[in-house]
Amino acid sequence: MAAALRLLLLALLALLPVPAVAQDEGVPVVIGRSYVLPSKAMGAGRTINVWLPPGYEGGTQRYPVLYLLDGGLAQDFHHISGIAQLGNVAGMTRDMIVVGIESVDRRNELAFAPADPELRTKYPTAGESARFRRFLAGELKPWVAARYRTSGEDALIGESLAGLFVVETLLRQPALFGAYIAISPSLWWDDMALVKAAPPLLAGTGGRRLWLMVADEQGMGVEPFAALLKAQAPAALQWTYKPRPEESHATIYHGAALAAIRELFAVPAQ
Q: What start and end residues bound the annotated signal peptide (predicted)?
C-alpha cells in the first residue's frame, strides 16, 4: 500500500509545472554614453557618442578632445574609442575624450557643393559642409566645453569623405581645431576643386597640425595635395604625410588612426 501511495505521489508531482531555471543573461558592456543634441543649424537633433577616459568621474584633470566624424555606433565610434582606451592601458598616449558625431547624410554633411553637373545629378543632397561646420563650431563644441573638463586642445579625425571635410575645415576654418587627421581623404571630389583652391588658403593654416595618409589608391587627389604642402605650406603648419601603399581604402583606417593618435597625443618624455 505504501509503495502504491509513493508511486501515486510521484505521478502527481510529475504533472506539476517545473519552474524555469534562471538563465544568466550577463550585464551590458557600456563603453560610453549617447546623446541627442538639438541643432538649429542642422534642423534636427544629432546623435553624439562620448567616450571618457578611465578615472574621469573621480578626478579633476582636464583632457584634450578628439572629435570623430562618422562617429555613430554603427560607424567608427567603437574602433576609434578603442584606440583611445588602448592608449590608456598601454600608457602610449595621453588620455583624451572621444566625441563621435553620427553621420546621417554623408555627402550632404561632409562634402562641399560641386560645380560638376554630373555630381549634382548623382548626389542631389550633397554640398552642405559649411552648414555642418557651423553646427560643430556653434553648437557641438560649446556643448562639449560646458559639459566636460576639456583642456582646450582638440583634433578632428575622418576617413574618406570625412577626410575631405577634415582638409576643407583646415583650409577654410583652420582655427576651429588644433590638429587635423585626414585618412585617405576624397580630395578627388569635384575634379579636385579643393586642391585647386588650396594655394591661397594654406597661408592661414599656421599654428595647426595635419596628419595626412592615403592607401594604395590612384586618383584620390592626395598626392597632388601633399606636393602642394611641400611647396607652399607655411613653416608654422606642422604636417606629416605618410602613404600606406600596403593598405586599401577598406583597410587603412584603424592602423592609420592608431599611428596618428600616437604621434599627436604622445605621452611627454620624462
A: 1-22
Between the two ends of the chain, the Cα-to-Cα distance in Å is 89
Q: What is the pLDDT of residues 87-107, one digit of tens each?
A: 888 888 999 999 999 999 999
- DSSP letters spanning 46-83: EEEEEE--TTSTT----EEEEEEES-STTTTHHHHHHH
> What pTM does this model have?
0.90
Choose between 20 and 67: higher pLDDT.
67
Identity (one letter) of the amino acid at 119? L
Quote the CA–CA distance of 214 and 256 in Å, as a whole number: 9
Q: In what order do the strands lie in the sheet with 209-213?
A: 33-37, 46-51, 97-101, 63-69, 150-159, 179-183, 209-213, 238-241
Residue span of the structural domain in which 157 resides: 32-264
- Helices and strands counted in the chain (H then E): 10, 8
| Residue in 207, 194, 267, 210 with CA at minimum distance from that of residue 242 | 210
pLDDT tens digit sequence for 210-262 = 999 999 998 999 999 999 999 999 999 999 999 999 999 999 999 999 999 99
**Residue 244 belongs to domain with CATH number:** 3.40.50.1820
CA angle 161, 113, 47 (to 5 degrees): 50
